[in-house]
Specification:
0% strand; rod-shaped; mainly alpha; 157 residues
């Protein structure tokens, strides 16, 4: 068996003093440092999780904004298209009215010219009739001469 001697008791006492010293002065700062580190890691993980949620929310918000912008752009394009169709229809209607006005004006002008030509023709016919009558009166000829004069008059008309 082993003899318990003073060296063993001294070593045991030294070990106990060392354990007591370590438990009293060394162990608390180590455990405190480990707890602090654990808290920092936990808060870092929490911050990372919070950042992840915020990123997901920001992405969701960005997608909503993009979707809304697309809808608004589509509405603006539709409005512009409708406006362009209205402008085209208005231009067609305006052109139709203008062409009708020009056509009516041309018809009126033609009618005035026809009336003017008829008047000029009547005046010429009246002048010729008067000239023909003068010639008939000046020449009081027989029937064959009058027929020749009438033929001449008809040729002039």
């Amino acid at each position: 068996m082993m003899d318990i001697n003073a060296t063993l008791i001294g070593q045991l006492l030294t070990f106990l003093v060392l354990v007591w010293f370590a438990m009293k002065y060394v162990w608390p700062p180590i455990t405190k440092a480990m707890q602090d580190r654990e808290k920092k890691i936990a808060s870092g993980l929490e911050a990372a999780e919070r950042a992840k949620r915020e990123l997901e929310q920001a992405e969701h918000k960005a997608l909503n904004i993009i979707r809304d912008a697309k809808v608004e752009a589509t509405q603006l394009i539709d409005q512009a298209h409708a406006r362009s169709l209205r402008v085209i229809d208005e231009a067609k209607e305006s052109a139709r009215l203008e062409s009708k006005r020009i056509l009516d004006h041309a018809k009126d002008e033609i009618a005035r010219e026809v009336t003017h030509a008829k008047e000029a023709l009547r005046k010429q016919l009246a002048t010729l009739a008067v000239l023909g009558a003068e010639k008939i009166i000046q020449r009081n000829l027989d029937a064959s001469a009058q027929a020749a004069l009438l033929d001449e008059f008809a040729a002039e008309i």
